[in-house]
Design goal:
Cofactor: FAD
Enzyme class: transferase
Pathway: Pyrimidine metabolism; dTTP biosynthesis
Structural class: alpha+beta
Oligomer: single chain
Order of helices and strands: EEHHHEHEEEEHHEHHH
Number of strands: 8
Bound molecules: flavin-adenine dinucleotide
Number of domains: 1
EC number: 2.1.1.148
CATH architecture: 2-Layer Sandwich
Number of helices: 9
Catalytic activity: dUMP + (6R)-5,10-methylene-5,6,7,8-tetrahydrofolate + NADPH + H(+) = dTMP + (6S)-5,6,7,8-tetrahydrofolate + NADP(+)
CATH topology: Gyrase A, domain 2
């Protein structure tokens, strides 16, 4: 059986990404506990919360002087849905990260595709190494949405046609584009997350500006909001010290 574009599984189009904190063991006290073993040896967590100002000062000192290892004794697991091109960039972050992504070999990939939203700046201006993005015209926005959707539909029809003919999923998936949504679990600690955020977000307090692709930045912003809630002192110290991972 073959499918026309209309008969195929109905494609979905998304302009957003999603991030869910599914599991965590992460608090500012984890940093203090790890740091104070240097000077005080083993002590209870209760002791650590007795003097908030001192705790804040210690975290800031560790961040400023780049004593990084106390920021590793915690864990956050995120479930992330984003286009494949975001995951290609994401998985370049090797240190302090664990990944498990959905398989295109063991299950049929669902037709959910990325189309930039209206607020996504579409046009790059300037020379390599010194450029900026500006909003597209109405015509460019309309064209981008229309052409992307048509191309996505066509590729998914081809994918499904091969599956229907008995071709293996791992072979048929070759026709699917990098705008297809995928999902993964990503586990990190505060130190590896800070390194990621320093490179993959833009922020007014960044001492060293980075120029990430907007879509991975959208993922980073959602992860950062979750992390800031869990470790507010560490997050504040990260910002105050130029968003450079210790
Ligand atoms: C704006 C931007 C543009 C980019 N453009 C491109 C591009 O055009 N092409 C491209 O291929 N990549 C590109 N990248 C990816 C980039 O080169 C890094 O692979 C990615 O940012 C991960 O950074 P990382 O290696 O520091 O992180 P991790 O892999 O998590 O490593 C963390 C740190 O550990 C140390 N480390 C890890 N592995 C080694 C090693 N083998 N040897 C020595 N030290 C190590 C380093 O200090 C490193 O900073 C880009 C990244 C950004 C942010």
């Amino acid at each position: 059986m073959t499918h026309t574009p209309e008969e195929s599984a109905k494609p979905g189009f998304r302009s957003d990404v999603s991030v869910e904190l599914v599991k965590h063991s992460a608090a500012d006290t984890d940093v203090l506990w790890a740091a104070r073993v240097s000077t005080a040896g083993e002590q209870s967590l209760d002791e650590l919360t007795k003097d908030p100002e001192r705790s804040k000062g210690l975290i800031n000192y560790l961040m400023r002087d780049r004593h990084g290892s106390p920021f590793e004794h915690n864990s956050m697991t995120f479930f992330i849905s984003a286009p494949i091109f975001v995951f290609r960039e994401f998985m370049r972050h090797r240190v302090g990260w664990s990944y498990n992504e959905e398989s295109g070999r063991y299950r049929q990939l669902q037709p959910v595709f990325y189309v930039p939203g209206e607020d996504r700046r579409l046009v790059q201006q300037g020379r390599p190494g010194k450029y900026e993005f500006v909003p597209g015209t109405r015509e460019q926005q309309e064209l981008t949405g229309r052409v992307m959707e048509a191309s996505y539909r066509q590729s998914y029809v081809a994918y499904q046609e091969m599956l229907d003919a008995g071709v293996a999923r791992e072979v048929a998936r070759a026709v699917l584009p990098v705008g297809l949504f995928s999902s993964m679990y990503a586990t990190c600690n505060a130190r590896s997350l800070m390194h990621f955020l320093g490179l993959r977000t833009q922020h007014e307090q960044a001492a060293v500006p980075s120029f990430p692709q907007r879509e991975i930045e959208m993922v980073g912003e959602l992860m950062e909001a979750e992390w800031a809630r869990l470790m507010p002192l560490t997050h504040a110290a990260f910002n105050a010290n130029g968003r450079i991972a210790p």
